[in-house]
Amino acid sequence: MSNFIVSARKYRPKGFEEVVGQEHITTTLENAIKSEQVAQALLFCGPRGVGKTTCARIVAKLVNEFDTQEGENANPLNIYELDAASNNSVDDIRNLIDQVRYPPQFGKYKVYIIDEVHMLSNQAFNAFLKTLEEPPSYAIFILATTEKHKVIPTILSRCQIFDFNRIQNSDIANHLRSIAEKEGIEAEDEALHLIAQKADGALRDALSIFDLIVTYSSDNKITYENTISNLHILDYDYYFKITDQLLNEDHSGALMTFDEILSEGFDGHNFIVGLSEHFRNLMVSKDQATVQLLQVSEGVKKKYYEQAAKMSISLLLSSLNISNQCDLQYKSSKNQRLHVELALMKLAHLSSVINLSNGAGLEVKKKS
Description:
about 375 residues, alpha/beta, Rossmann fold, Helicase, Ruva Protein, domain 3
């Protein structure tokens, strides 16, 4: 069996130019390193899988003028990584402080990367304060955390804080496309955008899903059908189909489509949440100013434009309200299937209700 390396490790950025979606961070760090104005305590905070530890390793190599292309094993004597989740006691921090006393054997700096720093105990934080505020000139501390609010204020005040963003779906999809080209894999745009949506802003999660779909597809192709099948996601087409049925006041067809969705093993709550998201996407498709909020491929965008043209703003707002109320009351309902079916029947006859109310309003105006 060959030594398979997952994409998250194989394509881990070796330089700032390869980091995806964090230009505000990488530009600042690059300028600080070039001007030799790197703070001696940095705090990287943000969601999982957005590049905090990766950027910390790149900083560690660049401040020591090591070759970033040498990979993870470049000059390990200058870079110390500590997992605070499993080394969170006062003794662990004391051992770290003892190491800091000795200057580096190679390069200019000793860089200490402490991951999940919020897991340190209060006593460990307090033991770390003095060293963090006045470290030796050759020591740099880079703290990384997904939960900044759990880090005590006295630590925050001693650090230069960098807030990492969730990565945009379009950036994740473009990155996956470049990896697919390098690996000689054919990938459909719709499939890559679906993986990006499922990852929820975390590039590491997206790469893990990407590997999963490649393994699932024996012909070295990533198709939309394989992706929705493997990830057990409801197809866009179901929502377009059921919305057309609702517009035609075909409540019987809508109920049969919902039954088909349930028979395929999908949850009713996930369906109604997805339907609310579908109405939201139709709403933003109505205006050129908000269309950029639509995080889907170009082919799916065209479908949204076409269906949104058939619906008025008032109809979309009312549909959103009904689907949202169904979502909020779903868990407390005794008969959850009937609860969703009632919402679908209301949606199917919503156009008639709106037209009737508009007609009644005109009659009142005429009489007055």
